[in-house]
Amino acid sequence: MTAKVKDLNVEIRTLLKQFKLPDVYERYDEEIENAIEKNIGYREFLYKLLKVEEQGKKERLAQRNIKKACFDGHKTIESFDFDFPKGINQSKVLDLTTLSFMEKHENLVFIGPPGVGKSHLAEGIGIKACHCGKSVFFANAIDLVDDLYGAIALGTLKQKFAKLAKIDLLIIDDIGYLKMDKEKESIFFQLIRQRYEKSSLIVTTNLPFNRWDEIFTSELAASAVLDRLLHHSHVISITGDSYRVNRHFEEV
Fold first, then answer.
1. Confidence check: pLDDT of 247 > 60
2. DSSP secondary-structure letter at 87?
3. For 54-92, what is each residue's pLDDT tens digit?
4. Which of 99, 107, 141, 184 has the most Cβ atoms closer than 10 angstroms to its Cβ?
5. pLDDT-based confidence at 111, cuts 50/70/90?
6. CB proximity list for 122: less than 8 A, separation 6 or greater
7. Among 90, 58, 134, 111, which Cα is nearest to 239's?
8. CA-to-CA distance for 122 and 183, rounded, in angstroms?
9. Can you say whether the dihedral through the CA atoms of 40, 42, 44, 45 is positive or negative?
10. Does the pTM of the predicted model rise above 0.90?
11. Beta-carbon neighbour count of residue 233 at 10 Å?
């Protein structure tokens, strides 16, 4: 490599840093060697460099979105054992991973007994959304309602709702364990109404819909929430025994 080429490479790397192109910076030498070896033309070489940077930016955005989503773990659709639950529509679930429901501002409800993978599937779809550049927030139902309720005393409820409204996909996990009074019920209804036909929700629950009056103060309140939640929704019912309990007995 001549001194002139070395100086040019130093200048190129300086410019790549200046223009904040970290992926091209890291892969520049590799792509140069590949272009020389395969006799790639200027336009194709430029295109490949731009694709390198595009892919890197997408991956960094996905990782930021995953971090901000506050998932319980990192459960992907690919790691879900579709052979375990006795009753699950695998093709329907896989179709939902295309995220077409989000484009239509539809909701997903995973319903079934504890331990059949509802939260895993909800998180897996959430991670898919993160990789597609969507903002996601994953919250336990009790924690979310308590946080919003606590915001009343702090005078920050309006700001909390505004922040949640900007989230592309809100996942509310384990709603069946909620037990609300009138004030919490009102807050939760506002949250559901805020997203109605505007953005998507994923909800997991172990309670059948005809028992949602156990969560709210009355059948009327439960119906008001369900009316908006289910109007544009996909309900995935899962049956079977708990995966965690079954695995425990297998290991004993």
1. no
2. B
3. 999 999 999 999 999 999 888 999 999 888 776 788 999
4. 107
5. very high
6. 108, 110, 138, 171, 173, 202, 204
7. 111
8. 28
9. positive
10. no
11. 18
